[in-house]
Amino acid sequence: MSKPDMSKLASLSPFELKDELIKLASSDADRLMLNAGRGNPNFLATIPRHGFWQLGLFAMRESERSFSYMPEGVGGFPRREGIEERFDLFAREFAHVPGVSFLAGAVSYVRDQLGLNAGAFLYEMCEGILACSYPVPDRMLKLSEVIVGQYIRKEMIGNHPFIGEFDLFAVEGGTAAMTYLFNSIRENHLLKPGDTIALGMPIFTPYIEIPELNDYKLVELSVDADPGNHWQYSNKELDKLRDPKVKAFFLVNPSNPPSVRMSDESLEYLASIIEERPDLIILTDDVYGTFADNFVSLFAMCPRNTILVYSFSKYFGATGWRLGVIATHRNNIFDERIAQLPEAARKELHERYTSITTEPDKLKFIDRLVADSRTVALNHTAGLSTPQQVQMVLFSLFSLMDTPDSYKIAMKRLIRSRKAALYREIGIAPEADDPNAVDYYTLLDIEALGGKALGPDFVKWVLASVEPNELLFRLAEESGVVLLPGRGFGTRHPSGRVSLANLNESDYAKIGRSIRKLFEEYVEKYNAATGNKADKNVVKK
Predict the structure, then answer these.
(1) Are residues 95 and 22 in the same domain?
(2) Residue 161 · residue 310 · CB < 8 Å
(3) How far apart (Å, rounded) are the C-alpha atoms in residues 274 and 239?
(4) Which of 36, 219, 246, 433 is the residue whose CA sits 20 to 30 A from 409?
């Protein structure tokens, strides 16, 4: 591919550029394409899925029991009376079937540890998995919100002191969460065209692209993580948030693509800034937090100012399920800011929501999100599908009941062994163990890799001589390896994002060898162009 072609494609989102790389990588029918650009994991949680299917069978028995006099395949709604006793019989009869013992344990956990009514829980789950009723409440099923809330407390708050309660809105994954939030923030005048928002860079590309659309026309300010300091934000960068013109700060934590969580020191420093800026809106996307040890979300540190987005997709291998939640504290600045809007704006919003409540001025921001997600007029049919909510609940209970965190330990071991294989074959040791590294992705940065091997002169030559995406296109065309460009996520230097989640360990070893081969070729070109005699084998296994 010629340089003009690459320059033309450079403006594409990395997820669109990926399609061009895939075309090149798959052009050789005799070669296996290795697509490490996908964040979709190739692992998944089996136990809560077994539980889902067995719950479905129990729910079907309950449905057929209601209309047992009709042989034509007509069932009825499950009956609340006696459902707990009937489930106990079911659990004993099918105790040998995978998933049934998990379900029995879940019912016990809900009753004994969470203090909820087991019969009410089973009824909500059966009605939900049968999908025979609209979601009620539309924001999230009642007991489901309580249970998923306990999971969020465990994984996002942990042992951090947390005062008060929070609400959840079950949504179709992190994608829907972003879409709904940007829309409702605009509709409720929390941000308006021309406002400045800060983005914690690097960041998931849509957080860069969406604010630039005509729908929003927001001005973006970068708060850059420092690759030389394990991708942490310096105090100087975070101090940009002290400027009153900055209305909001959006970040992904742990980051995408560096895959590093904010250090405790940075979290505390940011929290101190928010104390001085009580009007600052925070949106934290913490989808990778469940891969970290003792993770604490900014939502735990600054709940009044923070909107939390969490997706079940990556940790449970559930991208196709489209499961996510938005969380807001019940005492938050969003409701306060809406109540303090100018009279004209408050009147406009009063009219917007008057068809769904007799007191639209008191409608909470999170419930405005629900209404806006269905263009207000369809609020009565809003809400995530009930089978999706049931699977979300079972994922949550699986984690809550796994007190040794054996699943989490297995996930971390899996992705870190893949990272070790990749770097071993590249021939450059990864950074020393970083307690904040999550390792869902790794970022192969030209400056870091080249500088570590051959020094700054080689790096300067590469940056001056090579188109930013040339290395990625050559990897795709010559080796069938697909990586995503780091530039699309807001990195400073040309780089490639490697997902450590979606291929097997042997595949990452092959990718490492392909990168090593390409690296050696550029060392030879560097020597020819500069007259230096750098050893292309300086990168040793």
Answers:
(1) no
(2) no
(3) 11
(4) 36
Q: Look at residues 492, 493, 483 and name the one whose alpha carbon lies nearest to residue 518.
A: 483
Q: Which helix (H) or strand (E) holds 34?
A: strand 34-35
In a domain, 37, yes or no: no
Residue 396 C-beta-side C-alpha neighbours within 13 Å: 29
- Is the residue at 41 inside a domain? no
Burial class (CB in 10 A: 0-12, 13-18, 19+), 303: buried
113 and 246 assigned to the same domain: no
Which H or E run contains 104? helix 100-112
**Domain of residue 77, CATH code:** 1.10.20.110
Residue 1 has pLDDT above 60, yes or no: no
Residue 38 in domain: no
CATH of the domain at 394: 3.40.640.10
Amino acid at 238: L
> At CA 299, angle to CA 295 and CA 305, rounded to 5?
160
- Contact (Cβ atoms closer than 8 angstroms) between residue 226 and residue 233: yes
Tokens of 320: 């196709």
Report the alpha-carbon distance of residue 336 to residue 462 in Å, rounded: 52
Q: Residue 306 in contact with residue 172, Cβ under 8 Å?
A: no
Contacts (Cβ under 8 Å, ≥6 apart) of 190: 281, 334, 337, 338
Task: From 366, 384, 399, give the residue that closes a domain.
Answer: 399
- The per-residue pLDDT for range 418-476, each reduced to its tens digit, is 999 999 999 887 776 789 999 999 988 877 777 666 778 888 888 888 776 888 888 99
Distance CA 390, CA 148 (A): 10
Pair 449, 456: CB distance under 8 Å: no
In three-state form (DSSP H/G/I as H, E/B as E, the rest C), the secondary structure along 171-234 is ECHHHHHHHHHHHHHHHCCCCCCCCEEEEEECCCCHHHHHHHCCCCCCEEEEEEEEHHHCCEEC
Q: Cα(523)–Cα(537) distance, rounded to whole angstroms? A: 9
Q: Tally the domains of the chain.
A: 3
Q: Is 36 domain-assigned?
A: no
pTM over 0.90: yes
